[in-house]
Specification:
Blueprint: E1 3-7, H1 16-29, E2 34-38, H2 44-48, H3 58-62, E3 71-74, E4 77-80, H4 89-93, H5 102-108, E5 116-120, H6 127-135, E6 138-144, H7 147-151, H8 153-166, E7 172-179, H9 186-198, H10 212-219, H11 224-227, H12 232-247
Parallel strand pairs: 1-5, 1-6, 2-4, 2-5, 6-7
Antiparallel strand pairs: 3-4
The structure holds adenosine-5'-triphosphate and magnesium ion (MG).
Adenosine-5'-triphosphate binds at residues 12-18, 40, 42, 44, 123, 179-180, 208, 210-211, 214-215.
Length: 250
């Protein structure tokens, strides 16, 4: 059965895109047929794979102008890109009946081709993120280990609970992971403890360490395993992805 995972946090810059790319690539390298879907008008994820300013994006499928565009990256990895057009999708969809289910209906047409579908959400709790959460079986929340990370969590959990009640009974917070972590920084260690208390039994053991190679790789249109296979970033994302995969085989 396919696992559809939204990577969501309305806080900006917490590592949603970096995580979607590298967890997706890691799962595909383990042999799982994986689709990475860019649902952010910033299109950083698409850019990271070298798909810049694509003509057709998920926007065209959401607005029924075309079928979902899917590009083959490797034998086991596909990408559905975004572009700036997506920035008007929320306005265009706002008057549509069943507007929260538009992405789900699109994913339903292709989901049987995959073991994992990962959705990179924009940094907001608007209609795009709601569509992602309605279409997903699970949500993962990346958190940078800063005090401000704790601040918006009640709001995020409220939205997820509302979606669970009204739109998608299946969705659950399947995991939380720390990004940009530096064990030498006291704040990082304190916040990690606070997050573990806030989400008992939900925090993955693997913490993604701060690592400059993760910043450099997308500039070269590469994932971390291709760009710097022995970097901390590659080691951490492979470890996290193995934890994620193991959780699905229980
Ligand atoms: N572990 C890490 N170590 C160092 N830098 C990182 C790490 N993870 C991500 N970054 C960098 O931090 C910035 C934000 O990361 P990213 O774009 O993945 O976050 P995001 O949550 O997707 O942001 P947005 O909310 O804008 O979509 C990027 O420049 C990225 O390269
Ligand atoms: Mg992003």
């Amino acid at each position: 059965m396919v696992n559809i995972i939204a990577i969501a946090n309305h806080k900006g810059g917490v590592g949603k895109t970096t995580s979607t790319q590298n967890i997706g690539v890691a799962l595909s390298r383990m042999g799982h047929k994986t689709l990475i879907l860019d649902l952010d008008p910033q299109a950083n994820l698409s850019d990271s794979f070298g798909y810049e300013d694509v003509e057709e994006s998920i926007y065209d499928a959401l607005t029924e102008k075309a079928k979902i565009p899917i590009h083959t990256i490797t034998e086991t990895l596909d990408l559905c890109p975004a572009n700036l057009d997506l920035s008007v999708a929320e306005v265009e969809l706002s008057g549509v009946t069943g507007r929260e289910y538009v992405l789900k209906d699109i994913i339903d047409t292709i989901k049987d081709n995959y073991d994992y579908i990962l959705i990179d959400c924009p940094p907001s709790l608007g209609l795009l993120t709601i569509n992602a959460l309605t279409a997903s079986t699970e949500v993962y929340i990346p958190l940078d280990a800063q005090y401000f990370s704790m601040k918006g969590l009640d709001k995020l959990m409220y939205i997820i609970n509302q979606i669970q009640k009204r739109l998608n009974k299946e969705i659950q917070v399947a995991g939380v992971f720390l990004t940009q972590f530096d064990n030498r920084v006291i704040v990082n260690r304190n916040v990690a403890e606070m997050i573990e208390n806030y989400f008992p039994n939900k925090v993955f053991k693997t913490r993604i360490r701060k690592n400059i190679a993760l910043v450099e790789a997308p500039i070269e249109d590469k994932d971390i395993f291709e760009y710097a296979p022995s970097s901390n970033g590659a080691v951490d994302y492979m470890k996290l992805s193995k934890e994620i995969d193991a959780a699905h085989r229980k």
